[in-house]
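Researcher: Go.
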Amino acid sequence: MSDQQVDVVVIGMGPGGEDVAGRLAEAGLSVVGIDSGLVGGECPYWGCIPSKMMIRAANLLAEARRIPGVAGASAVTPDWGPLATRIRDEATADWDDAAAVQRFEGKGGRFVRGRGRIVAPGRVEVGDEVFAAGLAIVLASGTTPSVPPIDGLADTPHWTNHEAIEATEVPARLVVLGAGAVGAELAQVFARFGSDVTVVEAADRLLPAEEPEAGDLLAEAFAAEGIITVTGVGAERVSHDDDGFVVTLADGTEVRADRLLVATGRRADPSAVGAEVVGVAADSRSVPVDEHLRVADGVWAVGDITGKGPFTHVAMYQSAIAVADILGEPHAPADYKALPRVTFTDPEIGSVGRSEADARDAGLTVAVGSTPVPSTARGWIHGPGNDGFIKLVADADRGVLVGATSAGPVGGEVLGLLVLAVHAEVPLATLRTMIYAYPTFHRGVEDALRDLEA
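Model: Structure:
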């Protein structure tokens, strides 16, 4: 095989990889994008977009059920059919990426379907082709669902988020392993469409990566909707037969279901793309990058594989930095201190920066302030479905916020103000002099600041 000379090879065409490849192609470089999956990655086909369509539909059902006592009477009958159709329409004819490939090639790039791997510095192999990248190799291969080594699980027809998103009917009984963002969101969706749902989380609370108050809040919401939650105990064994699944927990409890959704996280595989060739340890779970997204000379990485956050917005943020660095253009270095994330449950839970525990572990002089959403004017006006809180975590020595959580009917939207405050290190004194529109949910930030001062 003779090497094909190109400027850039991008391995992985998820949101970040596609953006990098497209921008560089538009800049006039010869770019090859490689992926064995769909161009666009998880987000448009099985991740953020279709899952939020599911959540929107489920939230409409919940809102309709809240009408009695507020605006009259209501009755609603869930129907999964329109939602399944809408998801298939959004995923472009049952998960076909022809339009995405055409979009990239229209910018001047070349797409190759296959598994790309670095085989030597500057050289990438895919199938029977080898590309020599004269300027850059970009690693953007993302992650895949992480299925834990539970006895019997691998031999069962369990769901990951892919099968859950593609479902054409609602199971009567559903067990969800894992209560992170994906597990929690999908558990609530299926429950609102009629499934009897049990959530099993080995950690001691739901949403273990978030503030304890967030997990407690969601547990209360789940209980009110009839979702059973089991925390502090993991699954030990799984079996499946014509009657469905049996999940045996570590304490001997058995949970039965028609479907089993495994939502225990995702994993990157740097070795699969030959990252060890450029100095990454073969057993590494991510690719170390510097503030310019550089891995080694001539190699950059963006997205989930960098371990900076498994979010589309992180990949796109990194893409802009990597592209500028590859092109030799000035750019601000990557800064993750104000990285936001939102779990789109109801209540919606948004957070940014450090948690209270993280801040204390870092040795900061921590001050905390909070307020319950129902005690705010807008929360009281909202009525049913107004559960939530705003929590602020401050570095008292510097007088700035280093983290915050906004949980409530529009927790992710209220978070925007707090992300700005953490990112720009707005002094607490300045935040206290702001005028907060009345009556809004974000006015609760003023109440939390008052509590912080006390």
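Model: The first strand starts at residue 4 and ends at 11.
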